[in-house]
Every structure is written in C-alpha cells, then in structure tokens.
Amino acid sequence: MRNTQRHFVDGPNSLWHIYKTVPFWKVAKNFMVIQTARYTPFLPMKNWMYKTFLKMKIGEHSSFALMVMPDVMFPERITVGKNSVIGYNTTILAHEYLIDEYRLGDVVIGDRVMIGANTTILPGITIGNGAIVSAATLVHKDVPAGAFVGGNPMNIIYTAEQMAERQAKS
User: Fold this and answer.
1) Maximum C-alpha span of the chain
2) Which Enzyme Commission number(s) are on file for it (predicted)?
3) Mean pLDDT of all residues in 19-31
4) C or N: which end of the chain has fewer Cβ atoms within 10 Å?
5) Can you give the residue range of the structural domain that contains 10?
6) Is 98 within 8 Å of 91 (Cβ atoms)?
7) Beta bridge partners of 64
8) How large is the angle between the packed helices 43-54 and 24-39, nearest 10 degrees?
9) CATH at residue 117
10) How far apart, in whole angstroms, are the C-alpha atoms of residue 73 and residue 10?
11) Distance of alpha carbon 66 from alpha carbon 38, whole angstroms
12) pLDDT band at 164, cuts 50/70/90?
C-alpha cells in the first residue's frame, strides 16, 4: 500500500484548490528548473539543479536520463540514493489530485536502482536498494530490495533471491 497523506476538499475537485496547497511562484520556478534540466545533457549540472533549486535529495553518481519529469509541485519529497539510474521520460509523482481529495507522499528510490524508460512512479512509493524496474512500468506499490519488477500494473517478475539464483546459473 502506498504511504500517502490524504487531504479532503469541499466544493470543486481538488485541482481547483491547487494554489491553496502549493504557491503559484513555487510551481512556476519548479517548472522552469525541471524543463531546463530535462534537456540538460550534463548529469552533474542536472543533479545540482535538482538539489539546489528543487531541494530533492540525490545521492552521488545518480543519473537522470533525458526528459525525466520529477514532481513539479512537491519535488522536495523525492529522494534518490547513490549510483541509481532513472530512465528516459520517467515521471516521478509526489502528489495526486483527485475529485474529493488530494494526496501527498514521499518517493524514496534506493541505492543502485535501475528505472527503465517511460516508467511512472506514484506518490508514497519506496523502491528498495538494487531493484530493477522494467521500462513502461506503473509503480503503484513498494518494490522490495533487489527485485526485478515490471508491467502495468506492476508485478514482481523475480525476487532478490530468484535473481541471485539466475545470476549464479549464468
């Protein structure tokens, strides 16, 4: 189950309440930083921008591929461990606006994690150290350390133990 905080709203859907939940100028600044970083080919510069302007927590040598889209409203709720790779066009969400409520949740991506291209990570998710997420996966629940997962919705393809057995055989 995802670890999110639920905030109920009255009246129109929760997205109509957006600037009661996050300041407009924060969203505008974050949008400009993210759009610049999405096209920046220099990984250290991209990480510096995310850490400095968005307050994301990013470990040493982690890499964000071209077109990665971190949460524009709450990027400070995203943590990426050391030496991880976030694949092309991946979206990392720390919020979701629904009809009667909005939800916020931290996203924690461990050390040495591989996220395949075109993956979407929902709010409140933890991806354990050494996990591999296949391309085009919808990560809607936590990923155990060392597991290989994929699909929409996400399923565990191999556990850490099964992965170790496969590697020992080859």
Assistant:
1) 59
2) 2.3.1.-
3) 96
4) C
5) 5-169
6) no
7) 86
8) 170
9) 2.160.10.10
10) 21
11) 6
12) confident
Nearest-CA neighbor of 75 among 98, 97, 92, 96? Answer: 92
Checking 53-60 for CB contacts under 8 A at 24+ apart, the result is: 53/29, 54/30, 56/80, 59/83, 59/84, 59/111
Is residue 157 a contact partner of residue 140, using CB atoms and an 8 Å limit?
no
The pLDDT of residue 170:
78
Q: Which of 52, 46, 84 is nearest to 66 (CA)?
A: 46
Q: What is the mean pLDDT of residues 137-147?
A: 97
| Average pLDDT value over all residues in the chain | 96
Note the residue count of the chain.
Answer: 170
DSSP 143: B
Amino acid letter for position 98:
L
* pTM metric for this prediction: 0.95
Record the tokens describing residue 74, joined without a space.
């709450």
How far apart are alpha carbons 96 and 73 in whole angstroms?
A: 10
Q: Determine how β-strand 107-109 pairs with β-strand 78-80.
A: parallel
The structure tokens listed for 61 are 């040598």
**Residue 166 tokens, joined:** 């496969």
Supply angle C-alpha 51, 54, 57, rounded to 5: 40
Number of domains in the chain: 1
